[in-house]
Structures are given as structure tokens and as C-alpha cells.
Amino acid sequence: MKIQAVIFDIDGVLTDSEPLICSAAIAMFKEFGLNVQPEDFIPFVGTGENKYLGGVAEKYGFPINIPSAKERTYEIYLKLVPNQLNAFPGARQFVKACQKAGLKVAVASSADPIKIEANLIKIDLPPILWDAIVSGQDVEHKKPAPDIFLAAARKLAVAPECCVVIEDAINGIQAAKAAGMRCVALAQTFPASQLGEADLIRPDIASLTLADLTDSI
Question: What are the residue numbers of the active site?
Fold first, then answer.
């Protein structure tokens, strides 16, 4: 079936925010009395901050209150955004090319709305631009479950098989495929060798073309 909509993850797809949220989480854990390493977070990339923080705490057997830990992590993160968060080269241009081609565009991020909004405003792709936005708070089961992408398809009023997902994370690719959607992976966070479950892999969003989404546009 012809592709009618493109669903974008944000972190690691549109923005270089993955290092920032990792730095914020490390700082939060240090304040709470635990020293953690960047590699501790790798298995939880794309799963939302509850799992991102909770998974690392569990690894160390370190009890934390997730709401409090997340609130503090976001406080630190939002201070980094103004000076350190950037759109990946070509991100804005590709989103607008999709719109010009008549495709609906949506954001589906496991992050909370406060982070989604801050990211989109900073990279000049504000919430008003999108046909739909789905956050981690909108679904019970986060990536790699398909819920977030299926919710985006419902908001767009587009069948899942008519959607293509742009992802950077292994958990996100698995979620897209479980939703019955085509998935294009960008090797901006993980190496291409780890993204093999995607239908297509490109090195970055700057190299992505409309033809990569589907041959039927």
C-alpha cells in the first residue's frame, strides 16, 4: 500500500539529544549518591526515561524514586538544551520535504511531553507543525512494544501499513516492525551493524531521501 505518513522518533533522529540526556542522568545519579557510566544506559535507549533511569538503578541494585529521579534529570537536561541541543543537519529540511510531498508527519517519542516540546522548539520544528505527537505518557507499554507507533497511526487516521517510521534505536526498530510498519534506521546513535532489523539503513538523516521511504511516492 502507498505510504501516507512518516512517524519520527526525536532523540537521535531529529536531534543530537542522546548525549545530553545521558549526561543529565549521570549527574542526577551522582547527586543521589551513585556513580554510573554512559554505557550503562545503552540497553535502555529509546525506551523512555522511566526505563532509562530505572534500568540503570536496577543494574546497580540502587533504590530510587522514579518520579523524583526523572524530575531532577529533566531539570538538568532542560538547562543543557539552550546551548547544547542541535538539530541534525538535514532534519528540518527532510521533515518539510515530507510535508511538501503530501505526507502526514508525526512524532512518536518515549520521552515525556516536557522534553518533547523543549526539543522541538529548540530545533525549530515546533509542536504546531506536526499532524500528531505521541509521548511516552500516552501509552502503557513503551518501545520495543508497538503501542506508541500504533497510537500515532490512530491519531493520524492512517493504517499502520501505510506508515513508515524513522528510528535510530534498536528498541524503536523492533517497535516499528511489531506495529507492522516499514522502518528506516539512521546510524546516528548505534552502528549500522546493530540495526539490521530495519527495512533500510542510512548513515544519517542528511542522506535520507523521499525515495528511501517507499518506491510508491
Answer: 9, 11
